[in-house]
Specification:
Rossmann fold; binds nicotinamide-adenine-dinucleotide; alpha/beta; 9 helices
Length: 248
């Protein structure tokens, strides 16, 4: 499904949705760079992908640090001379009651979930422009459509991701660069065990059209489509992968 020799950067790829994206892209023939603040975790996942016959490179990268992002882009360009897709997946979602959210909580959320997109896109786009093609997928969240208490700082950041996606798509279309977003619903990941209550997850599943948990693979499949020539007619769009939780 991906173009021959496809090279992809996936942020937050040690666990959860990002790990699912890296695995699926590698299975589809891409050389995958797993960028994660958790260097050891990224290396474990990259080794699993290599053991299954794929090409994977782990890079320690805090996406809120421009220098880390630059080093990852440079490494991929040095080895492959091209970057075909960038999946901006890294994100944090600690819960905070709004009135107890500190300025530091707020700033960290926006730095990791929003400002990081400026870093990665500004670093990758010049290479995509030079080749006259590229695919960027930004991971937002279904919470944007419905609003969630104790996540005001998070949902705000995920709204910004859509504004970023739409505006940058307008600016980059003339270079044949496609920039789309995915809004996952309640996805079964390792992060869920830390942040979510089982009863809440069961209540969400009960509101979905599909009576099953939506998995990292489901989100990865949408990212694969948006990184492949099958979506060449789409840019500035948002795909909702939530099992039919929110219909629009
Ligand atoms: N899990 C869900 O239900 C769900 C729903 C909607 C949207 N999302 C979004 O999907 C994305 C992935 O979520 P997940 O549930 O897989 O998360 P997760 O917590 O399971 O994994 C996130 C990964 O990102 C890495 N990471 C965290 N901060 C980082 C940083 N500063 N730099 C680089 N890497 C960093 C972590 O080490 C981890 O490997 C996030 O953007 C999240 O907001 C998740």
């Amino acid at each position: 499904m991906l173009t021959e020799g496809h090279v992809s950067l996936v942020t937050g790829a040690a666990l959860g949705i990002g790990a699912g994206i890296a695995e699926l892209f590698a299975r589809n023939g891409a050389a995958v760079y797993l960028l994660d603040i958790d260097a050891a975790g990224a290396e474990v996942k990259a080794a699993q992908i290599r053991a299954a016959g794929g090409e994977a490179h782990a890079m320690k990268c805090d996406v809120s640090h421009r220098g880390d992002c630059a080093a990852a882009v440079e490494a991929a360009m040095k080895r492959h001379g091209r970057i075909d897709s960038l999946i901006n997946n890294a994100g944090i979602y600690p819960r905070r009651v709004f009135l107890e959210t500190s300025e530091a909580d707020w700033d960290r959320m926006q730095e990791v979930n929003v400002k990081s997109l400026m870093h990665t896109c500004q670093l990758v786009l010049p290479h995509m422009i030079a080749r006259g093609s590229g695919k960027i997928v930004n991971i937002s969240s279904v919470t944007l459509w419905i609003g969630v208490e104790k996540l005001v700082h998070y949902v705000t950041s995920k709204g910004a991701v859509l504004g970023f996606t739409r505006s940058l798509a307008r600016e980059m279309g003339r270079h044949n660069i496609h920039i789309n977003a995915v809004t996952p619903g309640a996805i079964k990941t390792e992060g869920e065990d830390i942040h979510a209550v089982p009863a809440e997850i069961a209540a969400i599943q009960a509101q979905q059209c599909l009576d099953r948990r939506i998995m990292p693979y489901d989100v990865a499949a949408a990212c694969l489509f948006l990184s492949s020539p099958l979506s060449d007619g789409m840019t500035g769009q948002t795909l909702n992968v939530d099992g039919g939780l929110y219909l629009h």
